[in-house]
Amino acid sequence: MKNFFSYVLPILALLGAVLSSEEVLQENTQQPLQQQEQKPSRHSNNWAVLVSTSRFWFNYRHMANALSLYRTVKRLGIPDSQIILMLSDDIACNPRNAFPGTVFNNMDEAIDLYGESIEVDYRGYEVTVDNFMRLLTDRWDSDQPRSKRLLTDENSNIFIYLTGHGGNEFLKFQDAEEIGAYDLKDAFNVMHEQKRYNEIFFMIDTCQANTMYEKIEAPNVLAVGSSELDESSYSHHSDMDIGVAVIDRFTYYTLDYLERIDRDSKETMDKLFAEYTFENVHSHPGIRTDLFKRNINDVLLTDFFGNVQNVVVDDVDSELLKKVEQDEAASGINKTKQTMMRERGPVKFSFECDENSTTLINVTALQAKLFGMIAIGFIGALWFVASKF
């Protein structure tokens, strides 16, 4: 019995030490993994809601603001089917427009924002507070077209951009009605309860813009505004040929930075926010991050301004050609082997004397049985001799 315990106890002690070390290792490996899970975005699709809430010729810059960001998010990969564009759409064909059918955002008039194929989802008197709220919460009648709905889910990242005239906790729509900060708060709460988003990036360019996001309570919302309470938001410059301001300062420097990146860019959100200095914007932009779970230093710009890039295709033609060549080569080898086998004829009880030789040693059935009996006898003799020692 003593001998039994002297063998068993060390084995049990060694087994316990191994199991305890594995548990400690699992605890140490699980903790950093949990910390890393919050850094990458877990969204699978991107949407953009771009709204110019103004109308009339003297608000030219607000339509140019929205169209400029529309052009940028399309360039970075978000398709028209996932962009909701709301415009008064009364600028391009306005009688005062010296360049009919066009909208520019710079005095050099290099890029016609309206000339390239654009899809305006809500235009004119469709741009209302009611339609905007219904769009966010998806509270439509059954006859509302899918192309005019925000068909997001819990895996969607949404970029929401508003531009127009505003004040303390309100934004004017079409100079006819207003949306308030509490309205946005309620809409975002409903979106969260309905699981309509993964993360939201809310951007607003208007006077006293920062007051519009201060009431938001829904989680995973990153917000930025162009000016603080009792502060105006300014235009950047005017085009003398057009006769009015063509873009706002806050949107201008946003675009100036975004035009330097491409779809596969690894630039992060903090780099964009660094452009919002008083020297550039002439106001005090605000950034709200307390509702957002991730550090803005880890948030890619393409998480909101771009599209999810699941597949990267490179050198497709050459790769397919190489695959075809490999298949043809393998097919040729198989055909050569089949030809050699046909030349040799059927093989029965034979051994190849050389790898590349076609000469075979014929063995009859009787010889094969004899070889088998000799091999069995030899193995039995070895076993008998080994058992004696």
From TrEMBL:
Gene3D superfamilies per record: 3.40.50.1460
GO MF terms, alphabetically ordered: GPI-anchor transamidase activity
CC annotations in GO: GPI-anchor transamidase complex
GO biological process: attachment of GPI anchor to protein; GPI anchor biosynthetic process; proteolysis
The keyword Membrane belongs to this UniProt entry's keyword annotation: yes
Pathway(s): Glycolipid biosynthesis; glycosylphosphatidylinositol-anchor biosynthesis
Keyword Membrane applies: yes
Signal peptide: 1-20
Keywords: GPI-anchor biosynthesis, Membrane, Signal, Transmembrane, Transmembrane helix
Domain of life where this protein originates: Eukaryota
Family: Belongs to the peptidase C13 family.
Name of the featured protein: GPI-anchor transamidase
Species of provenance: Candida viswanathii
